[in-house]
Design a protein that fits this description.
Radius of gyration: 23 Å
Number of strands: 8
Distance between the termini: 64 Å
Helix content: 40-55%
Structural class: mainly alpha
Strand content: 5-15%
């Protein structure tokens, strides 16, 4: 079976019909070098499958005796069992730093090999804390992998790196709604598909005993099963994640889902299995897959030996309770104009609503009664299968994921156009937003509002949650001490994403030790009346929730 994914360079150039995505992509393209050749790849087959995933905002658990493997993860120094020594760069060409068992690193490494990029790939010894040493943090303050270096230009976050290194490759150019669908996938990737790792694969790697690992995988599989079913269904009617040609979405998706094959979890998902089989006909992907599997098997053997000697095991953590939300009556659309469906306490929905009001967009804003399950009813799911808010509707074109929606509705707004490295920095922020900033909500606000049983319980949960996010708050506080906005000295979509996540912390008195963030928020409320209204509406609802705990 062949895939229309890879052909020789001349064929690719002849087929490259995609127009630049937007002005910012045109600007990136103008900086590009000649695209390198791709390796051979299979031609498309009718049925294939894909895979679901995880959130933006993930903390890497400290393994008992294995190296941390997740992208954008921040592993702790562990036992003395080393897997690989750091391989320092040996030339002045660009460098990718990573680890063969990191899913995000594999995404970028696969792309580099697929396109035969002249980029050196080096291994970071995360086990010994190489990624936490001063020389590494000087270039990559987040202390994450993968990390990309090109002269004095440095990047983290796998999708930002992929965007940057693919900027000259015509085969991967997307435009119009196709490009927006890519943005939508990235949101889903970071909020759902990454859960294939965080909720399932990591539990197998980091369990202290075989029994604990088996239980963790069993529970994790139940969590990710709906996403797997969704992607399996999608791949029944198309060759790749976004359609019938390979895109960056596949480079992100495949390393997340294929590792489940190591755990024998893909049996029920025939289309995903066929999809991965087709990909493995590509030498570049097959090499990436087999390298990861080899490391996994070594770690599995080591864990088995350790488990045999272990006297006891820790109990797996309880599955998090589902959040409840304040009831809001749904307001049905009253016209044929575009519609944003959301909830006033949803941070992502607030991001989009603020932008709509800021730009005075002719888009109707309606509330969804998430408490009664309005977003899970057939008529809603027919347009928005993920059952999420916010959701955007424009005729028969539907979108979920706040950043994808922001990208789409801002496409004609010149003041929000970014190009070159500035645009790549936006992509980098989006990755950090979904993997870290969203924790302001998931680790702090949700437990306090939806799980606390009393005022004392609320305070305890706030204190516990604050400890988890203090490092990121301090990082952004330092950043805002040297610039006016998140990416620099002008308002960008990064601010629309960041602000609704951080301002809610102010409602709980959690920003007192972050003066630069506080000043930033006060400045925005003075400068943008529509943001002040947006904030005050959410703050009022939060106060109602807090009062209910007394």
């Amino acid at each position: 079976m062949g895939c229309a994914a890879g052909k020789d360079a001349s064929a690719n150039k002849a087929k490259a019909e995609s127009k630049p995505k937007e002005e910012r992509r045109e600007s990136r393209a103008s900086q590009a070098k000649n695209p390198p050749k791709k390796d051979s790849a299979p031609s498309p087959v009718k049925q294939e499958a894909e895979k679901p995933a995880p959130p933006k905002e993930e903390a890497t658990p400290t393994p008992a005796a294995a190296p941390v493997v997740a992208q954008d993860a921040k592993p702790e120094t562990q036992n003395e069992t080393k897997v690989e020594e750091v391989v320092p760069p040996t030339s002045d060409k660009p460098v990718l730093r990573g680890h063969p068992l990191s899913q995000p690193c594999r995404s970028v490494q696969w792309y580099i090999n697929y396109t035969k990029k002249d980029i050196e790939i080096t291994t970071v010894d995360v086990l010994s804390g190489e990624h936490k040493k001063p020389e590494y943090l000087a270039k990559h303050p987040a202390g994450q992998i993968p990390a990309y270096e090109e002269g004095d230009f440095n990047l983290s976050e796998s999708y930002a790196i992929l965007q940057y290194i693919s900027k000259d490759d015509a085969e991967f150019k997307l435009d119009g709604k196709e490009a927006i669908k890519m943005d939508e996938y990235v949101g889903r990737h970071l909020s759902a598909v990454r859960k294939f790792t965080t909720e399932c694969f990591r539990k197998a790697l980091f369990a202290k005993t075989a029994e604990e690992g088996a239980q963790g995988v069993k529970e994790g599989f139940e969590t990710i099963k709906p996403e797997l079913e969704s992607f399996d269904s999608r791949l029944n009617g198309q060759q790749f994640v976004l359609g019938d040609k390979i895109t960056l979405a596949d480079f992100l998706f495949a390393p997340e889902v294929d590792q489940l094959d190591f755990l024998d979890l893909l049996g029920p998902f025939e289309n995903i299995g066929k999809y991965l089989e087709r990909l493995r006909e590509q030498d570049s992907y097959k090499e990436s897959f087999e390298a990861a599997k080899a490391v996994f098997e070594k770690l599995k053997s080591f864990k088995a030996a350790e488990a045999a000697a272990a006297a006891s095991a820790t109990k797996p953590e309880e599955t998090e309770k589902k959040e409840q939300e304040e009831p809001v009556e749904e307001s049905p659309p009253t016209s044929d104009k575009p519609v944003l469906r959301g909830h006033p306490l949803s941070q992502p929905a607030r991001s989009v609503q603020w932008y709509i009001n800021h730009m005075k967009k002719d888009i109707e804003i309606t509330s969804v009664d998430v408490l009664s399950g309005e977003h899970k009813k057939p008529e809603y799911l027919a347009k928005h299968p993920a059952g999420l808010v916010p959701a955007y509707e424009e005729g028969d074109f539907n979108l979920s994921e706040s950043y994808a929606i922001l990208q789409y509705i801002s496409k004609d707004d010149a003041e929000f156009k970014l190009d070159g490295k500035e645009a790549i920095k936006m992509d980098e922020y989006v990755g950090r937003h979904l993997s870290a900033v969203r924790k302001f909500t998931t680790a702090v606000v949700r437990p306090a509002l939806f799980e606390a049983k009393s005022k004392d319980d609320l305070e305890a949960r706030l204190k516990e949650g604050l400890e988890k996010i203090t490092g990121d708050l301090e990082s952004f506080n330092a950043r805002l001490g040297t610039q006016d906005f998140i990416i620099g000295d002008k308002l960008t979509l990064a601010d629309f994403l960041f602000v609704p996540e951080v301002d809610q912390l102010q409602c709980f008195g959690l920003l007192e030790s972050q003066p630069k963030i506080t000043a930033y928020l006060e400045r925005l409320r003075e400068q943008y009346p529509e943001y002040k209204e947006n904030y005050e509406t959410a703050a009022k609802i939060i106060e109602q929730f807090k009062s209910s705990k007394e």
